[in-house]
Specification:
11 helices, 40% helix, 10 strands, globular, TIM Barrel, alpha/beta
Length: 316
């Protein structure tokens, strides 16, 4: 079932969350361990992220460089199929531009259609550690808008292999939005215009980057509506869980903590203290968003469901 159909048919705010594929060498059970505790809240869909492979170049005895993969995660397509089979819930795979040619993207989408997966979240993706800036695949897409356009073309029956007749796909396409703007955007208005291009290209709903100040989300939605973005805008929340998160999240995701949250975090002496503050703040955020009638609250679990479960118990 499509995400937009879930939203249209809902009588109250929906619950959804995002997981990470397990690191190389871990079993599917590590995925189930993160999902099982959250199923009591009846999620309508579960997002599955995709992270690019990362490499180092190691010099061999003959002086040549050998390319060695240092980070590899199991395939998102297979994980989505496993989740749908085990839980009878819709899985939403992330599609990214980085590291993929248009042909590889098409093949992935054909596999997703074969498995009965109705939704995709189309993203540009981040640069890898060895890149100072994002570099698209030589035969791939540079922007999420272009990726969305490829999915829309397949939905109309147009494939790269134009000499072969294939059935049209029927994917519901999601896109990412940034209440505090994407860090590469010149300003928020520029970023909003880019989001509108993605929606005009065919994105049917938006999921936001994490934020900790609900007013920024409300302002973001208002600004989107003002420029003609009418699709559902789903707020994304992430509970702060550790001392490391205090500095890491603002630095890596280019977001700000509200003053009230900052004061509470500065009092923390341990990871347990931070996790408790994160839960309490997450409950407060979620209650306000729920009262405002948002279509869905989407939680970034990082495959650790403890904090999200504590929050969801108070909301759903």
């Amino acid at each position: 079932m499509k995400v937009t159909d879930h939203i249209k048919g809902a009588k109250s705010t929906l619950f959804s969350f995002e997981i990470l594929p397990p690191l190389k060498g871990k079993s599917i059970q590590s995925i189930y361990d993160g999902i099982d505790p959250l199923m009591e809240f009846k999620p309508k869909f579960v997002n599955v992220t995709y992270h690019r492979e990362e490499f180092i170049y190691k010099e061999r005895e003959n002086g040549l460089l050998e390319k060695i993969a240092i980070r590899k995660r199991p395939g998102t397509v297979g994980i989505c199929a496993a989740i749908m089979n085990r839980y009878d819930v819709d899985a939403v795979p992330h599609l990214i531009c980085g590291g993929f040619s248009k042909e590889e993207t098409e093949n992935a989408l054909i596999d997703l259609q074969f498995l009965g997966i109705d939704n995709v979240l189309a993203l540009r993706g981040d640069s890898i550690k060895t890149e100072s800036n994002f570099r698209p695949h030589k035969y791939g897409h540079q922007f999420a808008q272009q990726l969305i356009e490829q999915v829309v073309e397949m939905n109309s029956g147009t494939y790269l292999m134009d000499d072969i007749q294939l059935e049209p796909t029927d994917f519901c396409i999601g896109a990412a939005g940034y209440p505090e703007k994407h860090f590469e955007a010149m300003n928020l208005n520029f970023d909003l215009e880019n989001l509108k291009k993605k929606v005009d290209a065919g994105a049917e709903y938006v999921v936001t980057q994490m934020f900790f100040d609900n007013q920024k989300y409300f302002d973001f939605v208002k600004a989107c509506r003002a420029i003609g973005i009418t699709v559902p805008i789903i707020p994304g929340l992430k509970p702060i869980k550790s001392m490391n998160h205090i500095s890491f999240l603002p630095k890596f995701f280019h977001i700000d903590y509200p003053e009230a949250l900052s004061k509470e975090l500065l009092k923390c002496k341990s990871n347990a203290d931070v996790a408790q503050v994160g839960i309490e703040w997450g409950i407060q955020q979620s209650k306000e968003l729920n009262a405002a009638g948002v279509p869905c609250i989407h939680y970034y679990t990082m495959s650790n469901s403890v904090s999200v479960k504590a929050i969801a118990k108070e909301i759903f």
